[in-house]
Amino acid sequence: MAAVPTDDDAGAAAARRRIGRILTELREKARTEDGKAITVEQAAQAVELARPTMWRIEHGRDGVQLKNIYLNTLCNLYGASDEVRKDLLDLAILSRRRGWFHPYSDVMPVGFGMYLSLEAAAEDITAYETDRVHGLMQTEDYAREMVRIPGLDGRLRDDEEVARRVQVRLRRQAILTRTSPAPVKLHWILGEAALRHRVGTAAMTARQLDHINEHGELPNVSVRVIPFEVGLHQGVAAGPFARLRFADNTEPPTVYADGFLGILLMSKPAEVRRFDVVITGMRSCALDEQKSRDLIHRIAKEHLRA
Question: Is the full-model pTM beyond 0.90?
Fold first, then answer.
């Protein structure tokens, strides 16, 4: 079995997703005594769970405790080998770990904990933003202003909730500078508008842009800007997203997109390939790293002069 990251930040989500894929493959290959395929409904009945719960298990979603009795029963039903059974039970132990972000579940969007786990487990991330600075690159002041924007419910957050959400945003940034495991490689493409928007005061915005350039000097971070003069490009149609890739193909490439209506995770090959095409197109029209750095520095000065 390929290694799963064992730190509490990354292991649980990766383990749940691997368990889901293994169980789905076993079920699709298995046959009943009369030669028919085993359905999700039949699998759910075998472990006395509802069909939606079985669907969540097969899709690696959180919120379902992967008990050994479930896995053993399914292995018996599918005729799994002893080796596969052991792999599943080992993975189940990892799936029960709680990440550092668990205490913040009450202030995070539904499903964001799973994304944080995958983000920490990724080998490299290619992200695109149109109008805002990526969460991995935000200063504390910038993050606080962003968090104060009302969400889907239109509710104004109190100071305590704002502070806790900012803590999550800053804590997750450690994946860029950690020493073990290796830091995540971030390839960030952004529209010029993200640099032009004033967030808080002019000085605060300038500090944020300086912060981007400072982090752009890290060997594992690349920042490239698509200037206004390019006009329309594929990223405009796609909207903000992040493509995550994992070492040794331990996880399939996954695309994350968030918007006003919630979070979306996509890992079907056809879906991911569409974003691969968008990334290629954006890279062809983005400034190189040095020219991007120069533009960011120039816009920071313009904020201070305004």
Answer: no
Which residues share a beta bridge with 244?
125, 254
Asked if 132 and 194 touch (Cβ cutoff 8 Å), the reply is yes
CA 38 to chain centre: 32
* CA 142 – CA 136 distance, rounded (Å): 12
Going residue by residue through the chain, which has 306 residues, state the pLDDT in tens, using 9 for 90 and above: 333 343 444 567 788 888 999 999 999 999 998 899 999 999 999 999 999 999 999 988 877 888 999 999 999 999 999 999 999 998 998 888 878 888 998 898 877 888 898 999 899 999 999 999 999 999 999 999 999 988 777 788 999 999 999 999 999 999 999 998 899 999 999 999 999 999 999 999 999 999 999 999 999 999 999 999 999 999 999 999 999 999 877 789 999 998 776 788 899 999 999 999 999 999 999 999 999 999 999 999 999 997
Cβ of 217: how many Cβ atoms within 10 Å? 10
The SS3 assignment for 8 reads coil
Domain boundary among 74, 95, 116: 95
Shared domain check, 157 and 69: no
Q: Residue 285 is inside which H or E element, if any? A: helix 269-285
Burial class (CB in 10 A: 0-12, 13-18, 19+), 170: middle
Number of domains in the chain: 2
